[in-house]
Design goal:
Layout (H helix, E strand, L loop, with lengths): L1 E11 L2 E12 L3 E5 L6 H9 L6 E6 L2 E2 L5 H5 L2 E4 L11 H6 L14 H13 L15 H14 L4 E5 L7 H16 L3 E5 L3 H7 L2 E6 L2 E6 L1 H4 L2 H8 L3 E5 L6 E5 L3
Parallel strand pairs: 3-8, 3-9, 6-7, 7-8
Antiparallel strand pairs: 1-2, 1-4, 4-5, 9-10, 11-12
Length: about 260
């Protein structure tokens, strides 16, 4: 599975948001997209997911332009996982994950035993099968995020797109979710997620893509491209980068203190 973007441009009315975006991601990678608010990250994701159609350039999934897929075909290849999912209904965890299987069903058809097994296998993959009978709205934020990832897995898409999946989670749940995402990438999934936390990138990502004003400022291995100068330019605050001697990973901290 490969996701390639060539000369992508997109604008709202007279305002240009994406300007000449080029990259290629492959299966087995966890890619983190960084950039301050308004840099174009969410617009890029919406173009990739088929939610914005009036773009110029190409978005290729395994060599085929995204425009050539039907909605059902696209859902079998790429899935979106939101930050959170408030619901007024008392759906069980299993019911929430079953929703991901409906993308492959005929119109008006209901999930059957085959789809239930897919949903259970997705929960097992993320080590949360014990939650299957719990009410989704009554489990923790970290558990909810894992359930939404399981729903995307039940959709049988191999590209998972996530917009700041850890933004509303406490530190422990952030680590838990990031560890599971890294494990999924090692199982052959392509994970593309936006984040404002450089440490998540240093510790878990295979690649980082940095956006500034609708353009790619840097793309590559985090240790090679995420410099003090680049991050200060992106976020407009003093930053220091240190190496943790125990883990060998880099740590990003506020500077100038």
């Amino acid at each position: 599975m490969e996701l390639t973007v060539k000369d992508l441009e997109f604008g709202y009315h007279c305002f240009q948001v994406l300007k000449g975006i080029n990259f290629s991601f492959s299966k087995g990678e966890l890619v983190c997209v960084l950039g301050k608010n308004g840099a174009g990250k969410s617009t890029l994701f919406r173009c990739m997911l088929g939610l914005l159609k009036g773009y110029h350039g190409e978005i290729l999934i395994d060599g085929t332009e995204r425009r050539h897929f039907s909605e059902r075909e696209l859902a079998g290849r790429i899935a979106y996982i939101p930050q959170n999912h408030d619901t007024a209904f008392t759906f069980s965890v299993l019911d929430m994950v079953l929703m991901g299987t409906t993308a492959s069903l005929p119109r008006f058809a209901s999930p059957g035993q085959k789809e239930k097994e897919r949903a259970l296998n997705a929960l097992k993959l993320l080590k949360i099968a014990g939650l299957k009978d719990r009410i989704f709205g009554q489990i923790s934020g970290g558990e909810q995020q894992l359930v939404l990832i399981a729903r995307a897995i039940a959709q049988e898409a191999k590209i998972l797109v996530m917009d700041e999946p850890c933004s509303s989670l406490d530190y422990g749940n952030q680590i838990r979710v990031m560890e599971e995402l890294r494990t999924l990438s090692e199982k052959g999934y392509l994970i593309v997620q936006s984040t404002h936390n450089p440490e998540h990138v240093f510790y878990f990502a295979h690649k980082a893509l940095v956006m500034m004003e609708g353009k790619i400022a840097a793309f590559g291995e985090p240790d090679k491209i995420l410099t003090k100068e680049l991050l200060e330019g992106v976020y407009q605050v003093p930053i220091e980068i240190y190496e943790d001697f125990k883990s060998g990973k880099k740590v990003c901290m506020p500077g100038g203190r």
